[in-house]
Amino acid sequence: MIGLYTAEEVRAAEAPLLAATAEGALMQRAAAGLASVCGRLLGAVYGRRVALLVGSGNNGGDALFAGARLAGRGARVTAVLLDPERAHPAGLSALRRSGGRVLAASDPAAPPLIGRADLVLDGMLGIGGRGGLRRDAVELTWAAAGGAGIAVAVDVPSGIDASTGEVDGVAFPAMHTVTFGAVKRGLVVGEGRGHAGQVHLVEIGLGHHLPVATAWQLTDADVAARLEPPSAGDDKYSQGVVGVLAGSATYPGAAVLCTGAALRTRPGLVRYAGGAADGVRAAWPEALVTEGGPGDAGRVQAWVVGPGGGTDEGARAVLAEVLATDLPVLVDADALTLLAREPELVRRRSAPTVLTPHDREFERFGTPVGTDRIGAARRLAADLGAVVLLKGDATVVADPGGTTFVNGTGTADLATAGTGDVLSGIAGAVLATQGTTGLDTAEAAAVAAHLHGRAGRLAARRGPLIAGDLVRRLPEAVGHVCGVPPALLGDSQA
Ligand SMILES: NC(=O)C1=CN([C@@H]2O[C@H](COP(=O)(O)OP(=O)(O)OC[C@H]3O[C@@H](n4cnc5c(N)ncnc54)[C@H](OP(=O)(O)O)[C@@H]3O)[C@@H](O)[C@H]2O)[C@@H](O)CC1
Ligand SMILES: Nc1ncnc2c1ncn2[C@@H]1O[C@H](COP(=O)(O)OP(=O)(O)O)[C@@H](O)[C@H]1O
Ligand SMILES: [K+]
């Protein structure tokens, strides 16, 4: 798992390390790692044009020392200084000694020079940035955005809040971010994610000074370790039975998608109960189907309730019935609307509950999501005593104790109707295996979000995706995270 940190946590960890190392040593480690990534991105360094955007703090110092190293390898490096009086003095001397040039940001030659550069290094603001970018920094950012060079952010893209990913106005649109010591949360969540591009972590020795993270990102290997393939002693009941309560006779789509996604995540068995029984039977002969309610479905190890289920009295009764059980329940869509009216239904539960709101559903519980998505998910989870999976570009999963997962596999291709129903089915199937895997509830939800995003990426390779494509790609997504070659995956290639 990749630990995700706030700017304050990183600063606190840096203090003892700074005290224990020679002056400037950490910045040299940072600059060496930064120059090495830039060298790799450029391919050949000799003769290439590099523009450094340099602010008045240590972030600018990193850029200047990295620029000096690139100049030493023959690059034509020019530093553009936001505040020439306050630019890092040692960094500036190092750059000049290596043959680098220096311009003030106010110099009319600066924007065209940035536009022509092969690589632009954004060292304007790091974790010391506060509020929106000032005017001169905005102008340099526009010049970089309009140019053809590789845009690389030093530590964090200037203009994003390193802890929340909030962007107040303009932020540097990086293709790559070289971050030091620890991955800052703002690089993977909120608007920051869209500005960071590919994140490269450079070790500077911060490791054991960092606290245990409270926010994490799962890798493919982490997810593979949390999935249990069937073994010789298994039967259809021992690998988890999911109950799906979704859709209606008029709107069978959500039921078909949710049931299909649950099946394709490969628990032992999927049961469906509700008004879309005919549609589900026709689409999924593998499911056990009844027109009745949860009590008619038979035994399950986890329920999914809500997608396309409506908000009438009957739907409310179904929700109350499953929330009164001691089984894991995933509450989505219409059932979230009902639950927002009666949050006590979940507060009094002791069994695992996962709520999967998008932003508008989240707001029904009282407050809008706002710009701090991790903070928002944690607050609602603590308030309700349930795991909250807040959907979005980077889906955030928080448990009532504050442990949080930020999904890294999401793609904007998922922004299409029905993909949320698919996520519910996947998550229901993972929750149903908790009895055998012992998987923590928030981790189960995070595993589901990871697989959902992977399926989205695989489906999007073949062109614009619709929700049903995600269901078809699920076996391939599971195979991908577990390292199984697609050729061995049978009908997911269809
Ligand atoms: N500590 C370490 O061990 C290591 C730290 N490292 C590096 O240091 C970075 C942190 O450096 P930092 O603390 O100097 O802050 P930094 O991000 O450069 O910005 C502060 C300057 O920006 C200015 N400014 C603020 N807001 C602004 C705005 N909106 N728009 C425009 N300007 C604004 C503010 O100016 P002022 O407000 O005073 O006018 C101040 O001068 C960190 O991200 C990493 O890269 C690495 O070398 C590894 C070792
Ligand atoms: N821009 C985006 N980038 C990544 N994922 C997205 C984006 N927009 C939506 N998604 C994902 O698509 C799914 C949409 O769910 P939802 O809004 O409930 O749709 P529906 O109700 O139509 O099924 C969620 O998993 C969400 O995280
Ligand atoms: K920066």
TrEMBL record:
Its cofactor is Mg(2+); K(+). (6S)-NADPHX binds at residues 58-62, 126-132, 155, 254, 308, 358, 421. AMP binds at K391, G392, D393, A394, T395, G420. It catalyses: (6S)-NADPHX + ADP = AMP + phosphate + NADPH + H(+); (6R)-NADHX = (6S)-NADHX; (6S)-NADHX + ADP = AMP + phosphate + NADH + H(+); (6R)-NADPHX = (6S)-NADPHX. Pfam families: Carb_kinase, YjeF_N. Residues 10-212 form the YjeF N-terminal domain. Its EC number is 4.2.1.136, 5.1.99.6. NCBIfam families: yjeF_cterm (TIGR00196). Catalyzes the epimerization of the S- and R-forms of NAD(P)HX, a damaged form of NAD(P)H that is a result of enzymatic or heat-dependent hydration. This is a prerequisite for the S-specific NAD(P)H-hydrate dehydratase to allow the repair of both epimers of NAD(P)HX. This is Bifunctional NAD(P)H-hydrate repair enzyme.
